[in-house]
Amino acid sequence: MTKSKAMLIDLSLCIGCNSCQDACKTTNKLTAGEEKTLSSTAYTALEEHDGVFVRRMCQHCVDPTCASVCPVGAFEKTPEGPVLYDESKCIGCRYCMQACPFQVPRYEWSSTYPRVQKCIFCHGRITQGLQPACAEACPTGATKFGDRDDLIREALERMKAEPTKYVNRIYGQNDVGGTSILYITSVPFEKLGFKTELQQAALPQLTWNALSKVPSVVTVGGSLLYGIWWITNRRSEVQKHEQEQREGHKGSNGNHV
Amino acid sequence: MKRFLSQLSFWKVVAGIILLAGAYSTVVRFFGGLGAATHLNDQFPWGLWIGFDVLCGVGLAAGGFTLAAIVYIFNIKRFEPIIRPTILTAFMGYVLVVVALMFDLGRPWLIWHAIIMWNPHSVMFEVAWCVMLYTSVLALEFSPVVLEKFHMDKTKRFVKKITIPLIIVGVLLSTLHQSSLGSLYLIVPEKLFALWYSPYLPVFFYVSAIAVGCAMIIFESFMSSRAFHRGLELNLLTEVARIAVMVLGVFMVMTVVDLADRKVLPLLFQARTETYFFWLEKMVGVIIPFFLLAQKKVRENETGLFWSAAMIIIGFVLNRLNISITGMEGWAGKSYFPSWMEISVTLSIVAVGFIVFGLAAKYLPLFKHEQHERPRKPEDEWIEDLRSVSQPNL
């Protein structure tokens, strides 16, 4: 079995050269030109927070929310790690965008045949044994590609080697059930625009709690409704019958007299 | 009479302007994309069309399943006179939801994908199936009225035969659909403000739908009694109001228990936009109408009934808009207000709804058991004018 791949982004090593975005745009044939935020033409972007560059991109969740909410199953978590979007299935409900805990998916708002756009973790390249374009292009090693387990180990080693430098947390290790993109930093995550209060369990369970009750609502509810109808209907039939009898009785009395 | 004529043209002009603006927006939407017509963006992907047209449209159709259950399942036949217009309103509500979805979906022509590409883990998948199935069920539930008009007695007898299974399926689908609209938001525990986000959102959506279902029955009866000079089934509506009071009471207790359970009661007393909107919605839609309708003299009074029902409906709309817009703005870090084109499309859809209802009332045996005409009242005048809009060939 293929090991799940991941990327470790060490924000303390990023110099903001934008090579990752350039390489990404070239590889994925996106409109060229530097962009400071994620967009439908930028799968990744460097956001600057207090002089620190924060590389934003799809987190490639281990149990992705987008894949769970899509009504037509247009998203898929591949065994290699990437979460992929199949545009031929998409109907454009944008529930993925509404649900994504990292606010990543972007939409082609001005298109009449719009797609959802987000990083694809260079799926084609990594199945060929190559690195994603961004990791390859990074001159400082701020973005490192590898097996998820190995990268977590490495992150912990870096943090242990320089405990005063690093914040004691790997963002993405357990957040919303874990992600394939992992971050470490020397500046607290909450100062860098990270959502640090996300729950640790994967989100899809939240809706599954409700959805899994559908069969019992249908069976129990159906029987209950039928039962109530049977009782009320029977009652009115009996009433009608009794009334008829009473009237019939009166009628025959009249005939006698 | 002079006033009548001048106002008649006034309402026609208003409807005309709305429909014209709506037509323009439709062209922009489909030839320029969602971005050209709406204020939606990557931080705020769902706006007015989902928040109002879909969430409220479905909710306001709740009168249909509520009354169907009362009349057919609980066999309380005295409500029968108002069932046809109520089912029609529900059906139209759903048709309008489907129309609104055609505007909101990025690729509406691929909507059939939901039929063959299943993802049972998606609430949206459940929603899609509920919309499809319940719209069909409502069409069947309403079909006797049309069949009667065209004297298709055989078909009508067949539909009559399957009434009970149809009603049961309809109530079940409504239960699933109303609650699943709440379930949609279960996936955003961090995004939706804590006053609204609850693991019991589907239950809240369902219970509030029943309350607004009762309010809609009252509201529609008033509107149609005035617009079509029918008698008002006041005693029936008083009964419906009693059900509404019970449901509102349950809803209030549930809300407080839920807030306490999640330890967010202090949020009720913070000075922030979300809190104000939460109070507004609960006061208008739940607390005030509860205490009004709890009094017998209000329930038996036309004006009291009408305004209490109107408040429940307004509060309901506020609730759905708060959940879809107000409660999401904080996290998104961006405020959203619909563009005039979004608003014009919504208004057009509603206007078409009024027109179709008016035509149906004119040409179909909608009000089966006509009652004595009630004496005219001054406020009849403007409703009559409103009606003239929906009956262009008057």
The biggest sheet of chain B amounts to: none
Question: How much β-strand is present in the residues of chain B?
Answer: under 5%
What is the average of the pLDDT values of chain B? 87
Task: State the order of secondary-structure elements of chain A, H for helix, E for strand.
Answer: EHEEHEEHEEHHEHEHH
Helicity level of chain B: over 70%
* Level-2 CATH architecture of chain B: Up-down Bundle
| Main interface: chain pair and counts | A-B, 57 and 59 residues
Bulk shape of chain A: elongated
Unreliable residue runs of chain B: 369-374
Mean pLDDT of chain A: 90
Helix and strand succession of chain B?
Answer: HHHHHHHHHHHHHHHH
CATH topology of chain B: Formate dehydrogenase/DMSO reductase fold
Tell me which CATH architecture of the largest domain in chain A applies here. 2-Layer Sandwich
- The strand line-up of the biggest sheet of chain A is 8-1-9
